[in-house]
Amino acid sequence: MASGKKRKKRDFHHISRGWNAVLNVVAGVFAFLCVFPFLFVVIISLTDEKTLARDGYRLLPAQWSLEAYRFIFRTSDTLLRSYGVTIAVTVIGTVISLILISLYAYAISRKSFRYRRFFSIFAILTMLFNGGMIPTYMVVSQLLGLKDTIWALILPLAMNAFYIMILRTFYSTSVPDAIVESAKIDGAGEFYTFLKIVLPLSLPGLATIGLFSTLGYWNDWFNALLYIDNPNLVPLQSMLMRIESSIQFIQQNSQNSSMSLAALQSIPQDTSRMAMVVLATLPIIFAYPFFQRYFVQGLTVGAVKE
Cα(175)–Cα(177) distance, rounded to whole angstroms? Predict the structure, then answer.
């Protein structure tokens, strides 16, 4: 009877070569469909502007051109400075975010913590209600005095209630209470237990939250719009938006502009937009391989295990 159950279990998990090939093809097609939009954006950014206006969007344009990238890199000093600001904000912000979120989530995940219910409700309420844009601006710029500082790009995004709930669930399901209790019996303090025992077991959850925080900081442009007037502190996303706004302004007011018609037509409007997308997206793509090892495990937190 037992052997029959084991045979059925093996048959259930076994996949024939034919079905394995079909599933691989389906997965490959799905992966290609996910990657294709970005590849198409790269192709458009490398297309000549006049060819794009004449022939439309094509996979194989009649004429290739790097004019869109040349147009953006004419302000190379500004672009490199914006890249530096964005990288600094992303690295520092992700580290601070991981420290704050991991400590908060660990505290409310422990049943021995007396005020875990209060702080859990407090975090959840921030997901449902907020003070609004004007009070937030007054707190950041006037009360805290962070306007025109790099901290105005870091601190407003450092805490996220949704990430706290994810990591709290990970701690509750993946860190056994017996391990924590045994460390306390051996005389370990709370911080030692957290640093030496809990964190090594929580790498998948931390990697997932770290990736989310990295994406949030890298793609943020709204805080720069609100709090940054100093051109030396403008991040990449905000700087690219300003370039696009300048192009649109020149195009829309070409009749009142002192520039010649030929110079106005030479501005790569559509291809430069795609080049901006490539410049803003390509660096963050390289962050995925560093998190990929733990990312799937972090997403399946709380799943039923056999």
Answer: 6
